[in-house]
């Protein structure tokens, strides 16, 4: 038992670094889902898109900071496409997301020209910022942590600004937003675009820390993001915009520690996706389970 | 006095060219003078909602022209027309943003039709102003600016919705059966607030209602619609002293006459 605890303890810093990176994706899941009321799956394609674009550019000798920025822009374009497909052709948001995500797989392959690009030998934003210390988990935590703090602060400020308030209104009541002179389509496109930009940024940071870009790297990231979001919201609540913006980061930090703990306890990695899916299902089903729980109580009363 | 709203030959046909073709608006002509408080009545499917939606921009016309205060708005989208128009919806859940606070809802309304920037939204000056505006309702909302609107009762939400609508002095106020979902006592409260605001600010107002008593007691004009047209237009002179039976009588005489002509 002590062994298990020791190996879990040893993994904590690495897991924190990973969860901070995935926080970008969780923020990218939260924004359309909670702020715009636009259930979106584009993240699943935008995350590897960011990784592939960034990896390809770094391998081509482009400045890593510029590579991250281009990855961000590509993610933005992907999100805008999903929102546009939904608004223009009245296709369900989830289906629009699946379409874009599927097409992105081919695009990602085309961008890289192969399925995997190793980046160990290239300079990344981390080696440029921290030099040889870049591989220490705590250095990654400091760099990504600072960045995510800035992003969360910027989002918090934006959602309390005049423009951000109107974006939230689009999700809260589109009819009301329109009647208040808000362009619902523009707000939706920019919002979903920004969300995918966040996911793509997460992907671009991920490839630099793991040392390679892979076309399959996004598989299941959306469900991980959703699970993290649900955990985060269970802890912070959603009553204020501060809580809503903090939930993804808090949730991600806890969710990946839980996963790490389960893995050290002996959960087979192959079963991980099932466990995550079952967890998300359970959390989503909980309100209904409670209701039927009330029903069984009544039944017991009848039996008495 | 100038015309605040003018609809000329407004036509909207749903399912055109199919068996289900339906003329929602059929060459509708309506003019509202500045300061008019016009009640729109008519049976279900008469075109009241289509009329309101055509004016607000939610329903683009197939043909015809709409101008507000002399400006042609026919080609403007709903969100562009919002600079002239404020609207209170029938459903209290739609007219406000339930997951946002009272203060944020007031902010959204204040910036209706104005450019929105990146500056902080709910400044201290704005909060003070909103409290003042909400205090006039006597519902205690002025002390609850940070409360989520979803926690308010239907009547409170409609009252808030009304304050949001009139606070910007819109050129045109559209009321879409805005008391229909409320109990009679609350409906009266909201109606009284409406009349007070409209009188005070001299707003040009269009109110759709199914409530004949409201049609009689409020406003200075009644438009009765049928089959996408204005059937009866009762002006200020005639409206004084009119009763519910009178109104129903006029409606039937007119629609019978049309039915006979058609036969």
Layout of SSEs?
The complex is a heterodimer of chains A (304) and B (263).
Chain A: H1 2-35, H2 43-59, H3 64-89, H4 93-112, E1 116-118, H5 125-130, H6 137-160, H7 162-172, H8 174-179, H9 184-210, E2 212-214, H10 221-236, H11 241-265, H12 272-303
Antiparallel strand pairs in A: 1-2
Chain B: E1 3-14, E2 22-33, E3 37-41, H1 48-56, E4 63-68, E5 71-72, H2 78-81, E6 85-88, H3 92-95, H4 102-110, H5 124-135, H6 154-166, E7 172-176, H7 184-201, E8 204-208, H8 212-217, E9 221-226, E10 229-234, H9 236-239, H10 244-262
Parallel strand pairs in B: 3-8, 3-9, 6-7, 7-8
Antiparallel strand pairs in B: 1-2, 1-4, 4-5, 9-10
Helix pairs in contact in B: 4-6, 6-7
Features:
heterodimer; A: 304 residues; 12 helices; 2 strands; disordered C terminus; B: 263 residues; alpha/beta; four-stranded antiparallel sheet; 10 strands
Task: Walk me through what this model shows.
The complex is a heterodimer of chains A (304) and B (263). With 304 residues, chain A is mainly alpha-helical. Chain A contains 12 helices and 2 strands. Helix content of chain A is 80%, strand content 2%. In chain A, strands 1-2 form a two-stranded antiparallel ribbon. The longest helix of chain A has 34 residues. Chain A is globular. The C terminus of chain A is likely disordered. Chain B is of the alpha/beta class. Chain B contains 10 helices and 10 strands. In chain B, the strands form 2 sheets. A 6-stranded mixed β-sheet of chain B has the order 6-7-8-3-9-10, sandwiched between helices. In chain B, helix 4 runs parallel beside helix 6. The model of chain B has no long low-confidence stretch (mean pLDDT 91). The chains are: A mainly alpha (304), B alpha/beta (263). Chains A and B meet through helix 6, helix 7 and helix 8 of A and helix 2, strand 6, helix 3 and helix 4 of B.
């Amino acid at each position: 038992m002590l062994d298990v605890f020791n190996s879990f303890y040893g993994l904590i810093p690495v897991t924190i670094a990973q969860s901070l990176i995935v926080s970008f994706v969780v923020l990218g899941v939260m924004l359309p889902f909670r702020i715009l009321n636009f259930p979106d799956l584009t993240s699943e394609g935008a995350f590897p898109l960011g990784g592939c674009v960034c990896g390809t550019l770094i391998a081509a000798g482009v400045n890593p900071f510029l590579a991250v920025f281009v990855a961000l822009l590509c993610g933005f374009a992907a999100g805008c496409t999903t929102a546009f497909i939904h608004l223009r052709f009245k296709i369900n948001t989830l289906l629009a997301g699946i379409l874009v995500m599927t097409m992105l797989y081919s695009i990602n392959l085309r961008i890289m020209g192969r399925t995997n690009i190793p980046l160990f030998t290239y300079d990344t934003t981390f080696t440029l910022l921290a030099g040889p210390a870049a591989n220490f988990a705590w250095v990654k935590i400091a760099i990504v942590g600072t960045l995510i703090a800035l992003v969360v602060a910027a989002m918090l400020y934006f959602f309390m600004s005049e423009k951000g308030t109107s974006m939230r209104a689009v999700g809260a009541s589109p009819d009301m937003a329109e009647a208040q002179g808000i362009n619902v389509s523009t707000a939706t496109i920019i919002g979903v675009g920004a969300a995918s930009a966040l996911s793509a940024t997460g992907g671009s940071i991920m490839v630099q820390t793991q040392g390679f870009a892979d076309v399959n790297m996004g598989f299941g990231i959306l469900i991980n993001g959703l699970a993290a979001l649900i955990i985060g919201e269970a802890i912070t609540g959603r009553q204020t915009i501060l809580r809503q913006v903090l939930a993804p980061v808090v949730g991600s930090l806890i969710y990946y520690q839980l996963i790490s703990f389960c893995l050290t306890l002996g959960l087979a990695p192959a079963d991980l996706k099932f466990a995550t899916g079952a967890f998300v299902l359970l959390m989503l089903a909980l309100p209904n389970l409670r209701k039927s729980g009330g029903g069984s109580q009544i039944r017991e009363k009848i039996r008495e | 006095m100038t015309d605040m709203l003018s609809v000329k030959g407004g036509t909207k046909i749903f399912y055109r060219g199919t068996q289900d073709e339906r003329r929602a608006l059929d060459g509708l002509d309506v003019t509202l003078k500045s300061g008019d408080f016009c009640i729109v009545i008519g049976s279900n499917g008469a075109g009241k909602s289509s009329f309101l939606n055509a004016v607000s921009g939610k329903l683009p016309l197939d043909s015809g022209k709409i101008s507000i205060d002399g400006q042609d708005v026919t080609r403007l989208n709903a969100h562009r027309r919002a600079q002239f128009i404020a609207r209170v919806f029938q459903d209290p859940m739609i007219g406000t943003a339930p997951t946002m606070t009272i203060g944020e809802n007031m902010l959204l309304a204040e910036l209706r039709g104005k450019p929105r920037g990146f500056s902080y939204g709910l400044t201290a000056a704005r909060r003070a102003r909103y409290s003042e505006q909400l205090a006039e309702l006597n519902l205690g909302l002025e002390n609850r600016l940070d409360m989520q609107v979803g926690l308010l009762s239907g009547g409170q939400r409609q009252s808030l919705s009304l304050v949001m609508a009139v606070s910007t002095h819109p050129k045109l106020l559209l009321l879409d059966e805005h008391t229909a979902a409320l109990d009679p006592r609350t409906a009266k409260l909201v109606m009284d607030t409406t009349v007070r605001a409209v009188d005070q600010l001299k707003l040009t107002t269009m109110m759709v209602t199914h409530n004949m008593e409201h049609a009689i007691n409020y406003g200075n004009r009644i438009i009765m619609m049928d089959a996408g047209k204005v059937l009866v237009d009762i002006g200020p002179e005639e409206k004084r002293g009119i009763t519910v039976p009178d109104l129903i009588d006029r409606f039937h005489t007119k629609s019978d006459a049309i039915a006979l002509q058609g036969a």
